[in-house]
Hints:
Structural class: alpha/beta
Oligomer: single chain
Mean pLDDT: 86
Radius of gyration: 28 Å
Strand order of the largest sheet: 11-12-14-15-16-17-18-19
Strand content: 15-25%
CATH class of the largest domain: Alpha Beta
Number of domains: 3
Amino acid sequence: xxxxLILVVDDNKINRTLLTRILSHEYRVYGVExxxxxxxxxxxxxxxxxxxxxxxxxxxxxxxxxxxxxxxYLPLCNxxxxxxxxxxxxxxxxxCLEMGATDFLTKPYSxxxxxxxLKNIIMLRExxxxxxxxxxxxxxxxxxxxxxxxKASKALNENLDTxxxxxxxxxxxxxxxxxxxxxxxxxxxxxxxxxILKELFNENALIARFTGDxxxxxxxxxxxxxxxxxxxxxxxxxxxxxxxxxxxxxIYEIQDRSIPLATMCDWSKMALTPIKGRYKIxxxxxxxxxxxxxxxEQLIVSQMDEAVSQEQFIVYYQPxxxxxxxxxxxxxxxxxxxxxxxxxxxxxxxxxxxxxxxFISKLDLxxxxxxxxxxxxxxxxxxxxxxxxxxVSRNDIYSKDLIDNLTALISKYKLDASNxxxxxxxxxxxxxxxxxxxxxxxLSDNGFVIEMDDFGSGYSSLNxxxxxxxxxxxxxxxxxxxxxxxxxxxxxxxxxxxxxxxxLNLDLIAEGVETEDDLESLKEIGCNKAQGYYYAxxxxxxxxxxxxxx
Length: 550
């Protein structure tokens, strides 16, 4: 068995770092800053967490509030919690015990005490007397992940003549059900689905609830998809909540039993990816192409840190053009990964992965510094100062170090904040408006120029302009699709946007300009700044410098 996972909930970064250092020799450690983040993490990974170290005094959701919320979600109640205290008094300890805390840990930390107490409560939880309970999900009474691994491995080893399928079962839009119907009704849905799965598969199948709304099943081959559809349809006539209920199945056909069971479960989960969000498509089987994509993703993740340290990421620059004066007025910085073995790696391959795993923030910081360094070099060579825009991801918006990092770079390279434009996608504005508005205002107050990127690709653009500090709109030329039946209406909308931008004293740049027709359309609506392949593709710093000279 691998190292057990400990969740550390503490808003003090120094405390989290210290506890990680103490525990990491014996445990895997994951840290979060407040109770709300802890709940979100546990709803996804509660089956993997062996114990929780909980601070009491935190912003957003403190330790007491976390314990209260945790008690509403039955699967979390099986995880032992050690509360971190600073001699808060007997009343505080009694209150925590009454709310379900297991033990207490007094600051400053004693490594030996921490490790011994953790070992004790984990051993108690995993005691033989509780094996049955530990291997079952307390809400649905199905197997949990641990129990499933034990029993499924045994079944595969003992029934070599039986061909098996691994199924990953997902409840469509379960998070929406939780959000609008409440977690209690969400639990009713989980119990409801568990009853459906028991009805669908006979006694030779093993069914488990892994985490959240993810179920796994090991079933003999084949399955009758029509029978499954009909059975689910019968159950849906009496749903536990007034909300459309749909279930999708990812299927992995087990061929090689030497492959780790956890890997096969992941592949069955991956099989769901192509049908996520698709209407009335309920079954999808894992393919070799999916496996290749997984291997590529694993390669990217395993080498991303090394790629930064070895400067494999190269900043390219795509000029921004003044249509009337026919001259460069700026550029957008775009990152490219030139791998020493695999060569050019498309941003479409690695950027979504980095956004998902959080590495995008480290990459963004790398790009920002390279742009500042290069800008300083060009200024020292006597080139006219032109602004370079850099991307700010949604992950960056949540970082408390964002403003300090940017202002420190400006100071380090003796630049004006106006030398660096910050591009934030329109979807980021619409998804985290309150926090983003506050952050953007602070950036604007520090002299940075703010660009709303991909304008027109979302749904709240005009409303955002009235509420969020923006200096420049980057217009998405998807609006100018000549093949569109309503292209005339699109041009009318574009003219309206140009007029609104003028009224609000906002600059407007069209991106994605590729043809003479695109250019003429922009001239027609009065948009005088452009970026796209019509003028130049993204290029390295050396080639961009040549363009500046000419």
